[in-house]
Amino acid sequence: MTDTHSQEHTCKSCGNTFVGRYCNLCGEKVIEPKDRKLDAYLSKVLIATTIVDNKFVKTLWLTIKNPGFLSREYVDGRRVNYMRPLQVFFILNLIYFLVPVLRMFNSSLYTQMYVLPHGRIAQQIVMAKVKADGMNLQGFQLIYDDQTKSLAKLLIVIFIFLAAVPLSLIFRKKNRYFTDHVALSVELTCFNLAVNTIALTILFWIINKVLHLGNMGGAAYLNDITLTVLFVSTNLYFLFRAGGTFYNQKGKRLIIRAILGILGLFLALEAYRFILFFVTIWSL
User: Fold this and answer.
1) Residue 67 and residue 178 in one domain
2) Whether residues 116 and 224 fall in one domain
3) pLDDT score for 1
4) DSSP for residue 30
5) Does residue 49 fall inside a structural domain?
6) How far apart (Å, rounded) are the C-alpha atoms in residues 108 and 146?
7) pTM of the model
8) Cα–Cα distance list, 124 to 43, 118, 133 (Å)
9) Measuring CA to CA, which residue among 54, 48, 47, 86 is closest to residue 70?
10) Could you tell me if residue 210 is inside a domain?
C-alpha cells in the first residue's frame, strides 16, 4: 500500500505538483478514502458546529490568561498554532446571539434615556416617536427592548472598530498599523464576550440559584451600573496585560496608558450604544 506522505500528487485546486498530504502552494489537502468515512465526516461536523476544537479552546484560554499575546503572534505572522481572532469572534458571537446572556453590549430604553450621557437627546427622540405612533411609553419600551436585544448582537462588530481608534491613539507606535490595533480590538471583544457576557452569565445564574435557595434576592444588584463596573475592571486587566505584551509598554507609562485606554474604551462603548439607539429607533 502506497504511503500518501511519500507519494507525488497534482493539486486539484492550483495544479501544482507536490509530495505529501498538503499542497505546498495553496494548502489543499489530498482527500483519502478514510476521509470519506462516516466517522471522519461526523467528526468534522462536530468541530465545525461546536467548540470542542482544541485549537479554539487553546486560543480562547490564551486570550483570557495572557491578553495581547495572540494579537502579537497574529500581526507578527505566527498564525498556524492558533485560531484567527476573527474566527474566535464569530464563534463567540454565535453563542452570544443564540443564548440569553448579560447585556454588556446592549442597553435598555430606560438606560438610554436616563443613565447614558446622551439621555436627554434620547428622551426627546423617544417622546416624539411615541407621540407620532400613538403609543404609551411602557408599551414602546417593551417593543424597543426586544428589538435592541437582537440588533446589539448583530452590530457588535461596530464596537471592534470604535475600540481600535482610542487604542491606536493612546498606544501609538511607529511599527504598528491601524489594522494591528484592530486585531487587538478583535481579541479585546472576544475577551469581553467570553468573560463579561458568557462566563458572567453562568456565574450569576449559579449565584442567583444559591441566593434563591436562601430566600435572598440578588437580581436587584445586577444592573447597568454593576455591568459598567465589571466592564471597567476586567478591561483594565486586559489593557494592562496587553499593553506590556502587545505594545511593549512598561512601568508608569504602562499604568497611565492602561487607565487612558479604559477611558477610551468607555467612550467607544458609549458611542456604540448611541449608534445602537438610533439604529433601533430607525428600525421600529
Assistant:
1) yes
2) yes
3) 43
4) P
5) no
6) 9
7) 0.77
8) 54, 10, 14
9) 86
10) yes
Ramachandran area for residue 251 (φ above 0: left; ψ -120 to 50: alpha; else beta): left
59-118 pLDDT, tens digit each: 899 999 999 999 999 888 888 788 888 888 988 888 887 776 666 788 889 989 998 889
Q: Which residues contact 190 (CB under 8 A, 6 or more apart)?
A: 60, 63, 85, 88, 89, 92
Residues 10 and 104 reside in one and the same domain: no
Number of domains in the chain: 2
Q: Are residues 205 and 104 in the same domain?
A: yes
**Total residue length of the chain:** 284
Q: Provide φ and ψ at 171, rounded to 5°.
A: -105, 45
Asked whether residue 221 falls in the same domain as residue 262, the answer is: yes
Same domain for 254 and 160?
yes
Q: Which has the higher per-residue pLDDT, 29 or 261?
A: 261
> pLDDT tens for residues 182-226?
999 999 999 999 998 888 888 877 877 776 665 555 555 556 667
DSSP state of 22: B
> What DSSP element (H or E) covers 17?
strand 17-19
Please count the CA atoms within 13 angstroms of the CA of 30 that sit on its side-chain side. 20
Radius of gyration of the chain (CA): 23
Q: Is residue 45 part of a domain?
A: no
Query: Which residues pair with residue 22 across a beta bridge?
Result: 29
User: Quick check: is 62 in a domain?
Assistant: yes
Strand 8-10 to strand 17-19: parallel, antiparallel, or no bridges (unpaired)? antiparallel
Range of the domain at 31: 4-36
